[in-house]
Amino acid sequence: MTVKIIIKRTVPKDREKELLASLKQLRNLGMNQPGYISGETLKSIDKPNEYLVISTWRSAEHWRSWAQNEKRREIQEQIDFLLGAETEYGIYGYA
Predict the structure, then answer these.
(1) Are 77 and 87 contacting, i.e. CB atoms less than 8 angstroms apart?
(2) Rounded to two decimals, what is the model's pTM?
(3) Which contiguous run of DSSP H or E holds residue 43?
(4) Domains and CATH numbers, the chain
């Protein structure tokens, strides 16, 4: 079953450029992973320091495999350091 991964991050203003560079790195690596379909990064209009990443995967297993990828985990640790918090994920299927 196709799934959507929803990731919301709040970034300090002085770290925004670093975050966007890291997100771009993740996207470029993720696009080559088995099961990856698409992804988009959105910036909140009402809360300019809030970002939403939505990616689509062929299955939750494909996403989980990518989430455990060593290179991805390294970049994710850098992102969490920038944010000062651990990133939370939601896996959603179609109802």
Answers:
(1) no
(2) 0.90
(3) strand 36-43
(4) 3-93 (3.30.70.100)
